[in-house]
Amino acid sequence: MSLNLVSKIEAGKKQRARVVIGVTAAVLILVLLCIIFIQLLFTKERIEIENHITEVAKQSAVAVDLLINGDFQTLNLYAHILEKEPKYLDNSLVKQGLQTAIKNTRFYSMGVAYPDGRVLIYDANKGFMPILNVKDFKYFKEGMKGHSFIDFINSDYDNDKLIVLYAVPVIKNGKVIALVTGANDAKDYTRAVDITSFNEEAVVHIIDGTGDILLRDKKGNSVYNKSVFEDVDGIKKEVKDKALKDKNTVSYWFKDKTGERKVAAYIPVGYNNWKILAILPFSAISHNTNAVLRYAVIFLLLINIVVILGIRYNVLIRRRSDNMIMDMALQDDITHSLNKTSFYIEAEKILFNKKEDDDENLAMLLMDIDNFKIINEVYDIKKGDVVLKEIADILSKNIAEKGIFARFNDDVFAILYRYNKEAEIVSLIDNITEEIVKIRLSLKVIPSFGVYLIVDKAMPINIMCDKANIAKRTIKGLVGDRFALFDESLSQALLADKEIEDEMKPALEGHQFVMYLQPKIDMKTNLPCGSEALIRWNHPQKGLVPPYKFVPLFERNGFIVEVDKFMWEEACKAIREWIDLGYEPLPVSVNISRIHFKYEDIVSTIENLVKKYNIPKKYLELELTESAFLDNEGAVNSAIIQLQELIAMDDFGIGYSSLNMLRKLPVNVLKLDRGFINEASCTERGLIVLNHITQMARDLKATVVCEGIETPEQVNMLRNAGGDIAQGFYYAKPMPLDEYNDFVYHHEGAYN
Ligand code: C2E
Ligand code: MG
Ligand code: MG
Questions:
Q1: Whole-prediction pTM
Q2: What's the gap in Å between 532 CA and the centre of ligand 2?
Q3: What are phi and psi of 109, to 5 degrees?
């Protein structure tokens, strides 16, 4: 995880916050638009309902009008006949006339009233009624004034049955000489006003000019009992007055006693200021449009809810995963202390907040554990992790509020520490060392420290760490020295590294690297039996540069991968050349840095090369240093199995777990480090070790090669110990290819 990732996450968070605000605003606008839309829909629906109910009610009014009109026309016809022929007003003729007329009209009773108040009535079912005096009756009075009359009344004859009574005057020479009357059952009108649409939920009345209800429809329901002025709808009297007086259609919305919203429409009928009053509940539309409307509303609301929930869920999930990534990015997973990324961030803050005139100073310390890999090797990774945790606890306790620390990688810890006097750093190191050394293990856990006293707080933190690291490297492995202070002379090394790094790529492309070959001599025959390919940098200014000046740096920066491939290819080319020249090639050992196992598939690279130059595999031997085995046990093991080639364990004996590795890995060649032969030539014990190591190698069926043979005594010692092959300046130094060709192929006899 890098700083870059953290800033990306932060940027992502900001971006998402902006998106959330944007989307929330969009959702709010959407909700608002939905509400407006729904409101519009409702308003439109209300208007439509109003229009519809008035339209339907108008049809009722027309039907009633037609009915009344027809009845008046009938009576007017008879009145006209009587006016022309008054003789028919005679009692017997009237009776005859009424009997005939009733058959030709829809009246169920008809009558003739005389100016003296008498009225003769013929009922279609009951025949002639007893003569009544109707002088005080309203219809008589109106009729005698010459006005036509119509009203809903309760019949005097017929058990108060509601009837519609008509009266039309017969006027002769400007004088009312009689009235022709007719009566109909109110039910006939009920049918005319009935509205069957709206699921029978509409109710229709005929009301008079004062708002009294004259007639109800078949269903008979109503908001009102007798008059529209009953206060059951919350509508003001003036509104109703106006509606009654208006010659046009009027409508209003109200809530009835149950709280249901309804619309009332008033439509003039054309007689007696009568009106049709139609009332429709809002719910009447629920079966069609209202349902659609409701679903639309629900649908829109659901969309909003889903969008809001979706955003919320997304934000939650992202936040959680961001936090997890942040934790992962900022925390060391083994010790739970800071990691490199978060250390850089925190250190940056501390450095930024430090005042120039502050008495306190800052130091950067880098600490690692000597041979920590062996702890992992001898115990296991889990135990190694426990030790790392213990170390983190010790650091945390000793540093406390005076600084911060982090685990950078493996066993490397960094500390940024506040101090007044340098002695405080020394006592910090002493205390930490004392506690770490006490960690209970059969192997001692010993830390080393590199210290860089920060002068320029603007210096990049990685450079500070590099400086502390350079200091640390100067004491690594030296018993007794537990820490070293960085001084500028050390940074010369940094500059030199930088210079090499600037030059390395052009050097490889410009063929400045060359392969040297150092012959190996068979101890039995004293003849060359192979060689080791060793790199040299033929620098245009510096001359021939030995590998120790650049190989360690290339291993650190990874460039060794390129360089090694170049060397392997050179070795293959040489072998190809020897075959082409008809020589029996001697095998060439190439060095393989442990870095390869991190970067690539070494097996296929080697196989491709061998194929490319079409050479038998047996001519190419591989030399891996012991530490390569230690770091990449699995990969090395599978490489050995897959390549089925000679694999030599180079520099055997300088590491700490050589014997342990030997136990696990089936290497065919053991290359003893120079130290063995040196020791053997100096001490008795050294000689014993050499003898036994060669014995052990023989038992393991491995060939023993000894490096660094410089003197005839050493040759003898190796021969006596049973060593198979010698490599050293005594026989030959590493040399360019053409010199090697002379040495091996153009030389007669053995080398002694
Ligand atoms: P190494 O693989 O152990 O190579 C043997 C080293 O011992 C060589 O050093 C060789 O010159 C030196 N040597 C041989 N006989 C004697 C002797 O009698 N006395 C003394 N004092 N030294 C002797 P060189 O060539 O300087 O290489 C040093 C190391 O650099 C090598 O150690 C190897 O680890 C590394 N190296 C060299 N070339 C390559 C390469 O192409 N790739 C990689 N990865 N590493 C290389
Ligand atoms: Mg070697
Ligand atoms: Mg070696």
A1: 0.50
A2: 7
A3: -145, 145
